[in-house]
Task: structure prediction
Amino acid sequence: MANILICDDERDIVSALEIYLRSDGHTTFAAANGEEALEVLAREEIHLVLMDVMMPRMDGLNALSRIREISNVPLIFLTAKSEDTDKILGLNLGADDYVTKPFNPVELSARVRSQLRRYTQLGGIGAAEPGEVRVGALSLSERTRTASLDGELLSLTPTEFDILHLLMRHPGEVLPPAEIYRRVWRDAPYGAEGTVAVHIRHLREKIEIDPAEPRRLLVVWGHGYKLVDAPDAPRRKGEQQ
Amino acid sequence: MKDERNPVPRRALRILCAAAAVVTLCLAVGGAALSTLMWEMNFYAATPVYLEEQLDRRLLEDQARQALNVYWRGDDPAALYKNTNLLFRITDENGILLAANTDALPADAYVCRGAQLVYEDAETTAAYERDSAEPAVTAAWERQTLRYYTVTCAVDRNFPYNDRYLIGRNALRAVYAGRYVIPPAAAAAGIVFLVLLGWLLHTAGRRTAPDGTQTVTPRPLDRVPLDLAAAACLALAVLEYSVLQRMPSVLPFAALTACFVLLDAALLLWFVTTLAVRLRTHTLMRTTAVGWALGWLWRLLRAAGAAMPLIWKTALALALDLAADVLIFGLLWSREEAFVLLFLKELAAAALVCWRAAEIRRLERFARRLSEGELEEKLEARAMTGDARRFAACLNGIGDGMARAVEERTKSERMRTELITNVSHDIKTPLTSIVNYVDLMKKENVTGEPMRGYIAVLERQSARLKKLTEDLIEASKAASGVVPVQLETCDWSVLLDQALGEYDGKLRAAGLEVIRREPEGAVTVTADGRLVWRVMDNLLSNIVKYAMPGTRVYVALVPGMHEAHLTWRNVSRDPIDVPGEELTERFTRGDAARSTEGSGLGLSIARSLTELMGGTLSVFVDGDLFKATVTLPAAAPDADK
Result:
């Protein structure tokens, strides 16, 4: 399916990743540090790069800035650092996504799939039809009352669809649970807004790769919820995973 | 101008300049004196002959009197004035020659008259001296007679002898010849002197270090006590004067005068330059004997004051006060001045006492701030006096010590956090491989029950290890306060909704029913929403892990005036062996045997994070009832959105 470059100084991690990605039907190339990765990139046609941050000779951040000078290839960081600042630094340097070690193989292959789809379909998506709402990889049709993520149809309950619809009409805006309740249920909440959180939780399980670490539907603790455009947008004040 | 690197030519140059300055000073002063004299003696209008006569007249006036005095003393003036150009004759009132060293005198000779009061009777004179009785004096007056003498003298114009008259005439002629040169020459010498003096003062004491920087450094001579040096110079001047007084002839007198003038000018120059150096280095007071004595006395008094305990000093002050009272009343009793003096004394005493009291107050205030942990502040010890000053210095020392200790503790805490974080990151890399290969083993369709069981154990334990490393990082960060905190106003009831929504599935799976008690409307607190969620996350995950299945969990949100409280109550599945307050310590778990999963860090993290936001977390255990209360500061009413 795709040519994927795996760059990590831990030989065992590279082997495990090769097994997973080959079983998904990809072709893999291995590199032990940033310099080797640049050599492979110059030699082969690569569709996606998985790169460790801390490596000898040339580290991931250095290699990334060198790659970005010549290529637009999707790049996912594998990092043992889970601090917010490191994530933001990587994303600002031009990484498309990140996975923290130790990672879940299922999550990793989902992120790889998502990045590949965005990369290969870039520009392939036409202009929005009337009655269609789009936020990042999410699109929603008011006419057919269906929603899709990266072109894949999502199976949503009517309430979940209404909540998603409301949030997609206000991207980047924090909506309090009471407000969501009022506009989706068309009723005064009277203490019933607690149910909104449960629905949001379910909705997140359907549109997020890792629901415990959401990147599209964010919880703004003590205020409400908001939907953001890019999954890799650096997080701002008051937002949570 | 001079070689900066080599001080020797510079030194020589200075000495040369100093010598030139001394000479020019003498020339200028001498020239000025001479010019004044010439002006007074009318050098610019009179003829040389007239001037010579004037000079002779001046000299002869003195000499005539001296010759007469010699005669009255009973000596023969003719024997004394032998080899001299002075010609004289002494005659009495009747024209009888009494003494002479010549027969012929020029017609324009100087004539001087003298009179002597002679007592007829030597005894009466003695009596008059012994006893001032009126009749004796009157008698003495009656028997006295006046005798008149005439001295005629002149200078021999042939000058057969080389004496003061010849020297005087030659000098006069020389000065007259140079009467138009001397004033400008003196002025020029003065200007040269001023220039040299300026340079000498400017460079006085300056030294150029090897790196080119200039410093003003006193030399040994600049440390000589200046007042003693001044006294020595005065004594020297007196000595010089008395030596000059005794000089018999003109030439040695003139030579010695020139030497003394040069010496005095040199001393004066040294005095001025050393004064400049001392003023520049602010050592004038320290390099005088008076300054030394005063400084020594001051140090002695200070040392005595420092060594004497406060109680003795107080006693001494009271004794002095009493002595003053006794003195005032003893000497001025019943006079108005006594009361004025007493009033002034009491005023002074009151001012002193108030001053000390104010100092004690400042010390106390500072000590209180110190005890409250404000360590950056310093007491201005220099503004205080005596005991208070020493006390202030001690307090400042304590503050410094405490600040150092706090800083070191903060540093070591930070280093420990860094170490834990780094070690945890290093653990994560091998852990990644373990997790991945366990997963791959699981996918290999392993048959055989024991093998599948082993893999399940590996999977569970590696997940636990992962959680443990993550908790460890979070706990050490939260405890050392390196977690960024962004305080804002947020609605705790909304946050509770959200948290319960997140845990809806897990609570349901654990068979727990949540009963909520909360007021109508928003409960706003000042907190970091993310951190509050992590506190709730830890508490809820504890409840899911440890609560008895099928029981109810009570959560109550109570707003207060200044803070809001959230209380969780649940029933534990297993007996809790540890008191409530110990549960929030790191690595403490309710079961001492540690049979269950969990890192034992959850409550510790929750407490640290709550405290970072200025709140508290208290845990209470009563039998199987587990109760945790989170308290957060309430948002100010106007900060409410």
